[in-house]
Amino acid sequence: MKITGKTRIMFILADPVAHVIGTDVLNQAFAARGLDLACSPLHVPPEGLASVLQGLRQIRNLAGFGCTIPHKAAVLPLLDQLTEEARAIGAVNFVRRESDGSLTGTNVDGAGFMAGLKAQGVEVTGRRALLLGAGGVGRPIAFSLALAGLSELVIANRDLTRAEDLAEGVRALVPGCRTRACESREMPPPEGFDLVINATSLGMKPDDALPFDPRRLQPQSVVAEVIMTPAVTPVMAMAAARGCLCVPGLAMMRPQAGLVAEFLGL
Amino acid sequence: MKITGKTRIMFILADPVAHVIGTDVLNQAFAARGLDLACSPLHVPPEGLASVLQGLRQIRNLAGFGCTIPHKAAVLPLLDQLTEEARAIGAVNFVRRESDGSLTGTNVDGAGFMAGLKAQGVEVTGRRALLLGAGGVGRPIAFSLALAGLSELVIANRDLTRAEDLAEGVRALVPGCRTRACESREMPPPEGFDLVINATSLGMKPDDALPFDPRRLQPQSVVAEVIMTPAVTPVMAMAAARGCLCVPGLAMMRPQAGLVAEFLGL
């Protein structure tokens, strides 16, 4: 990769930042498409977000920037325009800088997640899913799964209010998907679900608790993970040992380069 | 080059930006030193500089940033600390972000220029130099040449006041160097000078006028250029055809990676 004054730039805003590999995934994908575009990580603490965004508006060779934990929801009120997806989801994971410096937010997490499932041949229509986490990445996954024809969705979250809020949003958009919320510690065991998705951050740190009990998985269930570092989380390793097909976090990230390039009109 | 969340970042702020190759020169030099550091160009117009700097203060994985045309002098009042070099020169070409978000400006243009001359075996002590340009890059070159023991320095600039201001500063710092200023169109012909330096931007655009008349160069004169794109400017090509040793702009840039790494404590 050669970065010169002709290279358009892109960032991923995160805090913490050391675990981020999306910059490299995007850079490799852009290079493969012959695009002169370079993505770097910006370690932005929550209290610095507004000020950083004011600065980014002024940078003329900035194509856009990705947002990850903890900025996906916090960035919303700081933007000028939102796509329908971002508005419905209530979270933004990519922002385009328009030529006048205004900022348009979208969310390609859901589309990336669905593309990752599809690449592994995972069927969603008519199936039952257990989703752990109703945060910045859980929200787009819930909407995308429901829109893809899921028959039943259970959303488990530490904070019940957020899970209920998300369930209500999904029911309003896709009444045909039976959607309910529960508190994490009251969630049903994973057996009986075709798809179990970890959309929490549990598994990033070595001493994290398991997001659900993998001993109660049936081998025909698919386990999907949103965490990219480590590439194989403890719960994935245990699920794989039980014979489950596992879809890693990277599977969700990789298609996003194409989705982002499309959103940027490249 | 692999850019991940562990990579420390760096920028070069410029307007225009398309001609910038310093990002690539630095990235190659950092990689050769085994440093996980990536430099990208930021196209920042003058009216956006203050806002961009406020944002950069918030970015915790930012090692620092370079400043080039037109920001070298404009950035000064926006910084918290200046090195002695930057203060004397009145221009900053590199800024370090301290861990508390404060910004320290320095100037390694002069040291880079001198290292470039040295690498080509060019002697300065006791010699006579004609310097074209008294701007952000002409200023550090003037001070560095005088400090290196030049016997005579003529500074030609379109705006005579700036040339006189610089000449006065050099005389105050190095009384032993006979330094005088003149307006560009009144400048003496290059013959008789051991060293002729183009520190103007003339030569970047194909239809630029020549910064001086190379037909009046003597073959024993050395011609130094600060422009990096194109690598060989028209005046350099004509000087080389007359048998003059030419020191390209890249020779001044290349040593700066080491100087910047040292300033950053890497």
Automatic annotation (TrEMBL), chains A, B:
Name the record gives this protein: shikimate dehydrogenase (NADP(+))
Shikimate dehydrogenase substrate binding N-terminal domain segment(s): 12-95
Key word Amino-acid biosynthesis present: yes
Pfam families xrefs: Shikimate_DH, Shikimate_dh_N
PANTHER family: BIFUNCTIONAL 3-DEHYDROQUINATE DEHYDRATASE_SHIKIMATE DEHYDROGENASE, CHLOROPLASTIC (PTHR21089:SF1), SHIKIMATE DEHYDROGENASE (PTHR21089)
One Gene Ontology term from the biological process aspect of the record: shikimate metabolic process
Organism: Falsigemmobacter faecalis
Keywords, sorted A to Z: Amino-acid biosynthesis, Aromatic amino acid biosynthesis, NADP, Oxidoreductase
Catalytic activity: shikimate + NADP(+) = 3-dehydroshikimate + NADPH + H(+)
Annotated EC: 1.1.1.25
